[in-house]
């Protein structure tokens, strides 16, 4: 199974409409891949808080239309990263979109853990509530976004729902890049799953992005890693390795759930 992670640069001097067209062209160039992934909030930038409201779209807005067409043109499954979605009821969400090779919407995931510690995304966007998986012919995807990576219980929930490949689009900052790689490998090891972590390049809102998108196998080995600048990271993965790893080292069956807190 061939996966391509598009580590697109998000810079303030490029209009959103221009970047949308460029992203669609990059997706089309990945014809022949099985799955293509874009980063989190690549239309606005994950730290461009003032742009969230201005550039928010309905679910089936301009990014949806452009990405659906790109997926269909390339004949690929496309995780189109996330957009600032404006719900008809009014709230904003950080919403990921996944399209089939025919350009149909397969799933939408609203980010559950919002970053900002009572500012930024944490106050501007509402939290999603649902775990989302997507069945592909070769594997089942579990969807998460950026800051979600720090919460292992979400990923265990995805594994319990059948996920074998965990897809994490992000707008991760350079100053915490070491955490990015560490946490991607940790989620792969503890869940015995592939992790496809796709970040952004460039600088927006004064925040340099980490880049270094990464493909990690179920043993925690890094199969491919991007650099700091814009690039497309492509790797071949064998989805059968998930079941083989879980059989050879069946740690997941030894989980102990429902533990009670200590009595005082």
TrEMBL record:
<dbReference type="InterPro" id="IPR003010">
    <property type="entry name" value="C-N_Hydrolase"/>
</dbReference>
<dbReference type="InterPro" id="IPR036526">
    <property type="entry name" value="C-N_Hydrolase_sf"/>
</dbReference>
<dbReference type="InterPro" id="IPR001110">
    <property type="entry name" value="UPF0012_CS"/>
</dbReference>
<protein>
    <submittedName>
        <fullName>Carbon-nitrogen family hydrolase</fullName>
    </submittedName>
</protein>
<dbReference type="GO" id="GO:0016787">
    <property type="term" value="F:hydrolase activity"/>
</dbReference>
<keyword id="KW-0378">Hydrolase</keyword>
<comment type="similarity">
    <text>Belongs to the carbon-nitrogen hydrolase superfamily. NIT1/NIT2 family.</text>
</comment>
<dbReference type="Pfam" id="PF00795">
    <property type="entry name" value="CN_hydrolase"/>
</dbReference>
<feature type="domain" description="CN hydrolase">
    <location>
        <begin position="1"/>
        <end position="239"/>
    </location>
</feature>
